[in-house]
Amino acid sequence: MRSFSILVAGVGGQGILSAARLIAQAAANAGRRVLVGDTFGASQREGSVLSVIRLGEDARGPLVAPGDGDMLISFEPYEALRRLHMIREGGVALVNTAPVVPVRATLEGGYPPLDEVWAKLDEKMSRVVRIDASTSANELARRYESRYDVTNMVILGAACTIPAFPIEEDDLLATMKERFSARSLPMNQEAFAAGKTLAEEGGAA
Amino acid sequence: MTDKGKTPSVTLQLMLGNEAIAWGAIAAGIDFASGYPGTPSSEVMQTLISTAGEYGHYAEWSTNEKVAVEAAAAAAWAGQRSIAVMKHLGLNVASDALTTLAYTGVRGGMVIFSAGDAQCHTSSNELDARMFARFANLPVLDPCDPEEAFRFVQQAFEISEALELPVILNSTPRLSHTSFPLDVSQIAPRPHRDARFVEDKPRWICVAALALQRHRWLTQRLGESIERLESFPMTSAVDGGHRLGVLTSGVAHNYAVEAVQELDLEDQVSLLKVHLPYPFPEEAVRRFAEEMDELLVIEELEPLVEDSARIALQKGANPTPIRGKADGLLPLEGEFDRAIVRDALARVLGLKTAGPSEPGERLPVRPPLFCPGCPHRSAYFGLRKAIEPLAVKPLIVGDIGCYTLVSSYPFEMLDTLLCMGAGAGMAHGFAQAKLDRPVVAIMGDSTFFHSGLSPLANIGYHRSNVTVLLLDNHYTAMTGFQPNPATGLSASGEPAARLSIADTARALGFDHLQVADAHDSAQVADMLAEALAHEGPSMVISEGPCALQEQRDRARRREGRRPPVQVDPAKCTGCRVCVTRFGCSAIRWDAASGRAVIDPARCVGCGDCIVVCPVGAIGRTTP
After folding, report:
1. Looking at residue A109, what is its pLDDT?
2. DSSP E strand stretches across B132-195
3. Are B174 and A61 a contacting pair at CB < 8 A?
4. What is the ipTM of this complex?
5. Residue A62 above 90 pLDDT?
6. Contact B359 A85 (CB under 8 A)
């Protein structure tokens, strides 16, 4: 039996490590063998972040080799491109469409146009789901007058609509109930539901 | 976002390798824990601090790793079980204490946890702590995953007490920062022990002839280690074919298991994982080698197992060839993954490999930035303002902390960086070597107490012409906001003594010393200009709490966010000063309008950028 590897990518501060831990805890609660390897370094300060979730009895190492990943969940389009070589041909991708371009790159034109990003993803992946999770999360933060960014929960909600995503929606929701305080749970649940709706309504934005 | 500290209803809790190590130490009944923060080690102490009340052990952030080792050694000399926690570079700081501790040994079990950094993810070198263990003649355990680490730390205390020696537990980011579900609800910690010092002057006074006797004791003790550790498994084998025997150590073992499976080599290859790379289990390796046509050693960084296996086989007159690093098959640098290990296996066995994999996109990297609201950014804006008018540009000598980011965009002002405390130490050397430029040393509050005091005293003692910019943000921020002597809080957040950096520095000879508000870049600039004009030691302390910590504190006090500041597009001339010279990640350049824009979701309302705008286009009210 081979393993199933999910790469969760993005920029420091987006809640990537928390999202990956939630996915993995949900898998563990369901009695599955899972391990998560994090690469973050100085990531709280806007660096690239990667969490690798490996499911299955054969998963041993926390790192995957290029082309090993089965699913890419990226909180940022350019980070999806940065990690694309780690995913196998015909894998699936879920990508937040809101770019975080370093100021320096905006001055120097260092990042390619988003069209090129989507073209490269579409060429290699069997399915690419695109959602604008950041706008939903910002709206929720305003409405709840919260300093928290719930982009990660919007993305998890969207992930549950993708058949290849190997975690049950009920397991994720139950794990959220365990991990969040009564005060923060409603906002996170609402973000999760918003992500589901976004993905179900086409996800090709 | 997730909330910390909630008890889950399930027993299988996803745990970082570092958390597993802390729980292993709790299960072993530790009495005493001390450490200094450093990525990727910090979560071990954080877990031990948060559990100290419930499990009854003592836990502290010490001022540096040497102090942490000395404190933990004292507890172990008094018969308690202790752990000292640090990153691999801290092992160097602690080495004076550790190398002599090998001569004296310990009474209670003592473990030194060292989290290494193969690949230099967040460190200035990738020193292999297993080699430090051999250098110091201390046993070292090398677990490969959180599950093993949880068991090994408990065994490390048993080994320490069996040999009466401190034991090093080695880790890498791929163990420390790998999470795995573990059940620690059933642990039954050993009972605590009272501290009792048993006088033994020839042992506890390690000097001259007595020290030589203890060296002989150490050699003898290591020679007996195999018998004394009989009950402890020093290796574990995965039996397969005998064409190739693969020796592994640490996390590289995982990649070897996966690569053997991927290449379908179970009937050709057997594995022997070396749990204890020093002292080396020679007999077990010889027995393994006798059954194999050839050996391949898979370990990250230094060839400790490989060299030791060569010695073991030579002693047994066993001619089995050994492949690995000596023949260039595997690199000495960086971390491994399954592809690297798979390709090495394939080359040894003459198999075709898949060929080079598709290269990744060459996107510009994301350099880490100062956070919005960071007091350092404003202070450095002041530093640049102070040195720009000078005819000769000062040399900026760096140190380790968040403030090291002055090396990158948009400041790019740093000239050197070596190690903790080296900023002041080297600034003094440059000054005394009569460098043809003024010298500025930068240093943070935690580094001040860690390894800054001695080099600053050296500057004061020699009246060196050095200006120190001391960036005091009250926390050891880079590694996760740990408190230090400048904070006024203990490790567990209780009120503690708050030591005055200014008073200490004055006592060390910095009589020209001023304290600036870090968020007032003009004040920082004026004070630095005066300090640079002063002949002899001078210091400007730029004072302001870490922005992330400040936001946490505001949230705890249920204070809302400060309103964001805004750019008035009618006033903005598009000069880009706020973007190219201040570089707050909340300020974006909008190419379409040719104006700067502040992202209200990122802005924390510190207002530091208001004075940066030369035309007054940035302000607090809606334009």
Report:
1. 64
2. 140-141, 167-171, 178-183
3. yes
4. 0.94
5. no
6. yes
